[in-house]
Amino acid sequence: MGLSSLCLITVSIYILSTIVLFHLVVANSMQSHTPTCHDGEISALLQFKQSFVIDMSASEYVGAYPKISSWKSNSSCCLWDGVECDEKTGHVIGLDLSSSCLNGSFSSNNTLFSLVHLQRLNLADNAFNFSQIPTSIRNFPRLRYLNLSYSVFSGHIPFEVSQLSKLSSLDLSLNDDMFSNKEWLRSLAQNLTGLETLDLSSINVSSTVPSTLTNLSHLTSLILSECGLFGKLPGRIFKLKNLKVLDVSSNPALTGNFPDDYSGSSPDLMSLKLSATNFSINLPSLIERFHSLKELAVSICNISEGPLPFSLGNLRDLIYLDLSYNKFNGQIPTATLGNLRDLIYLDHSYNKFNGQIPTAMLGNLTQLTYLSLSNNYFHGSVPQSLFHLMNLQTLQLDHNNFSGTVEFQKFLNLQKLTYLDLSNNNLELLSESRFLNNATTVLPEFEYLKLGGCNLREFPDFLRSQEALFQLDLSGNKLQGQVPKWMWNISTETLSYINISHNFLSGFEKTAAVLPRIHLRYLDLSFNMFRELLLLPYLTSFLYYNIANNKLTGQVSPMICNMTFLGYLDLSNNKLIGNLPQCGGNFSASLEYLKLGNNSFHGNLPQSYTNGSYLRMIDIGHNNFHGQLPRSLANCASLESLVLSHNNFTDTFPVWLGALPELKILKMDHNVFYGVILKPDKKNLQFPVLRILDLSYNDFSGQFPFEYIFSGNGTTSITHDLEYYRIYSFNGGYYSITIICKGVERYYPRVRGDLILIDISSNNFEGQIPEYIGKLQGIWSLNLSNNILTGRIPSSW
Ligand SMILES: *[C@@H]1O[C@H](CO)[C@@H](O)[C@H](O)[C@H]1NC(C)=O
Ligand SMILES: *[C@@H]1O[C@H](CO)[C@@H](O)[C@H](O)[C@H]1NC(C)=O
Ligand SMILES: *[C@@H]1O[C@H](CO)[C@@H](O)[C@H](O)[C@H]1NC(C)=O
Ligand SMILES: *[C@@H]1O[C@H](CO)[C@@H](O)[C@H](O)[C@H]1NC(C)=O
Ligand SMILES: *[C@@H]1O[C@H](CO)[C@@H](O)[C@H](O)[C@H]1NC(C)=O
Ligand SMILES: *[C@@H]1O[C@H](CO)[C@@H](O)[C@H](O)[C@H]1NC(C)=O
Ligand SMILES: *[C@@H]1O[C@H](CO)[C@@H](O)[C@H](O)[C@H]1NC(C)=O
Ligand SMILES: *[C@@H]1O[C@H](CO)[C@@H](O)[C@H](O)[C@H]1NC(C)=O
Ligand SMILES: *[C@@H]1O[C@H](CO)[C@@H](O)[C@H](O)[C@H]1NC(C)=O
Ligand SMILES: *[C@@H]1O[C@H](CO)[C@@H](O)[C@H](O)[C@H]1NC(C)=O
Ligand SMILES: *[C@@H]1O[C@H](CO)[C@@H](O)[C@H](O)[C@H]1NC(C)=O
Ligand SMILES: *[C@@H]1O[C@H](CO)[C@@H](O)[C@H](O)[C@H]1NC(C)=O
């Protein structure tokens, strides 16, 4: 061993000296030809250097380094890193400062714009602090290559860019909030007749695709994904002879279809991405026409559904195939995919495929790094041939009907696997410690490990050695007893998502010191048998905490007030008692969802809800709260849903909530609310978007003022934006609510956005039923019973 490492060192020294030698030679030979820099250009570049700070986090590329650090006034600027001069004139004609860790704002008077001879400018992957692209870009009339991709530019793209008529390559992609004038793309298409490469992805161009774009006969690569394009994609695009890459994905309002006649079109289109558009696709004819495709993405597309065409197997050059989120059904024909031996990326998820996975098919796909079959109806056992796909990094088999046993040690073959999802099948996962936890075994280093519903009876021992987990899902298994101590110590630097809900766990093994888990953001312990509320106030970035449906008893400690970053807190369906701790009404500064329903809390509600509260939902139904409602609830301007049902509140109707601009659900039933609901003097107290109102089983009297409370006509909808939490895949996006309709209590896990429910039954309301209710659109349920109302349901119904 000593000998061989010696040899290695000798060899590397030899290589090193050759490189040094080579450098010297090159440097010398270049020195002799080096044109001298123009003084003005040297000082312009040095001033440019001064206008930014070097900041390693400003560039994402792993090989990024600050090229400008080496720029020194005592050498010719033509030798500087990233600078290119014209050999004859000495003018700076090229500047490649991509991934150069530049941070700072770009202004129109930046000295860069005095380098009027520039032909190539690459500033991609820096951080220009949301600057606009300066109009001084017009100073570069000779520019052929312009790349400002992924550099934190923003705002309006100046017209001047579309006038750089010599451009053959333009890349403005992946900047934040960048948008253009409606005519900009049209002007570009008319003027930049030499364009070969155009990448505008994620810029809001918000226009149709101008037909003049199809005159750009040199185009080889056209990338317009997520540009807000609408209207019809001109069919003549497919006739561009040189086109190799076409990506118009993520433009949902973009329509179009392939031309019937392809004569004269590109013989070798290599990459076609039409995902998330409304383009009409006939897969067999697409395959017939574009047989050289290496990349095909038609996720969320307008495809005539059915089984996969056999001819897919003819696309032998395919390396990337995304068919996800369509309605494909039937079995996967072996002969089809088995032929695609170069496939690296294969996504079949969210379709209606069924049958077994053809074992033979996978055997040929040895290059695969990404395989997703999730959310289909596949059944049968997990094919053994999967475990020969040594390059797999992502494997998603979740949400199918796979059955049988899977031995976890099989995954030892897949050393590159970082994402594994086996959840929601009928699988039984066997993890024998003797194989997985001995000194000779090296497990893959998982980042996402999702083993929901895999019939696990205990926490798999192999987790102990996982150091890089980001998300761990063990929900819906048969875990019981206590959560072992060592679970707190796995992947402490990375783990941000833990879901162990729907098991039979009863507690946490006591540990001397619980390590601060500063990265934990999502903890779901719901549907278990926990008896003690686990409070983790040291978690500074905690967003989601769900411990609903357990056996928690006792009072809630004031420590909960210190979980200041909570966004979602669910303690419902337990046996908690006592007053709520006095954290102030908002509980935590960032709380959006507060669910405490179905416990035995009592006392008054905490006072002092403050302006700037993020609360969207408060559900404290089925407790023993009493007294008046805190008037400061009117400060919760984001509140959409307030559920107070089944308590002992004694108060008049909260007209003062009528100013809340988002309030859609107000449930106050089964309390002791009383009095006449008077139309308020103030105009702005009109419950502008209220959809669901339940006042039943209270002591209200007098007339019920429909016109005032429902003046919003129910024209708005309840659907709301929960994207943030969806990332953490909790079943959000809709309200769940229990509604009693005709005496039958029903639980609606997802309330549709467009219905109106009114229940004022079992009060002492009196007077005529007003005609007005006939005007309410979308009324779905109306219960007026057990009051002293007269008249009939209005004829307008
Ligand atoms: C740029 O520098 C500013 C000020 O130092 C800093 O706040 C910001 O995070 C930096 N931006 C990036 C992307 O590094
Ligand atoms: C230029 O100056 C730097 C110090 O600022 C020095 O390290 C370098 O050797 C000098 N280069 C030449 C070519 O004189
Ligand atoms: C970023 O831009 C803002 C406002 O335009 C400015 O106040 C701030 O100083 C800039 N930061 C840097 C690092 O240039
Ligand atoms: C550019 O203009 C800003 C003011 O808009 C000024 O502060 C800055 O010094 C100017 N930079 C140069 C290089 O002239
Ligand atoms: C622009 O620069 C980025 C980062 O260096 C690179 O990935 C991209 O391919 C370039 N775009 C073009 C069109 O050359
Ligand atoms: C094309 O650009 C040139 C140079 O900036 C300009 O003079 C001309 O008006 C532009 N033509 C169109 C059609 O925009
Ligand atoms: C894009 O711009 C249009 C008009 O400029 C605007 O109506 C639209 O909301 C923008 N879209 C996005 C996603 O910003
Ligand atoms: C595997 O690839 C070979 C060569 O392309 C082909 O003949 C064979 O049918 C493929 N096997 C399967 C199961 O598709
Ligand atoms: C350790 O695990 C390997 C499989 O990875 C197995 O072959 C070996 O028998 C195990 N050793 C013991 C002592 O169980
Ligand atoms: C809450 O945090 C404060 C400091 O931020 C500390 O003084 C107090 O003891 C903490 N309360 C509990 C119950 O941990
Ligand atoms: C409700 O409150 C009243 C007094 O306000 C009290 O008499 C009654 O017992 C309470 N009911 C319940 C169920 O707690
Ligand atoms: C409700 O409908 C009436 C009549 O149709 C209309 O005048 C009023 O503006 C509508 N209110 C809202 C909030 O849309």
From TrEMBL:
Which keywords belong to this entry? Answer: Cell membrane, Glycoprotein, Leucine-rich repeat, Membrane, Receptor, Repeat, Signal, Transmembrane, Transmembrane helix
What PROSITE patterns does the record tag this protein with? LRR (PS51450)
| Domain annotation Disease resistance R13L4/SHOC-2-like LRR: ranges | 278-505
Boundaries of every Leucine-rich repeat-containing N-terminal plant-type domain copy: 39-86
Q: Which InterPro entries match?
A: Leu-rich_rpt (IPR001611), Leu-rich_rpt_typical-subtyp (IPR003591), LRR_dom_sf (IPR032675), LRR_N_plant-typ (IPR013210), LRR_R13L4/SHOC2-like (IPR055414), RLP23-like (IPR046956)
Q: Where in the cell is it found?
A: Cell membrane
* Membrane-topology annotation of the record: Single-pass type I membrane protein
Might you report a single GO cellular component term?
plasma membrane
Give the record's family classification.
Belongs to the RLP family.
Name of the protein in its database record: Putative leucine-rich repeat-containing, plant-type, leucine-rich repeat domain, L
- Source organism per entry reads Rosa chinensis (China rose)
Which taxonomic lineage is given here?
Answer: Eukaryota, Viridiplantae, Streptophyta, Embryophyta, Tracheophyta
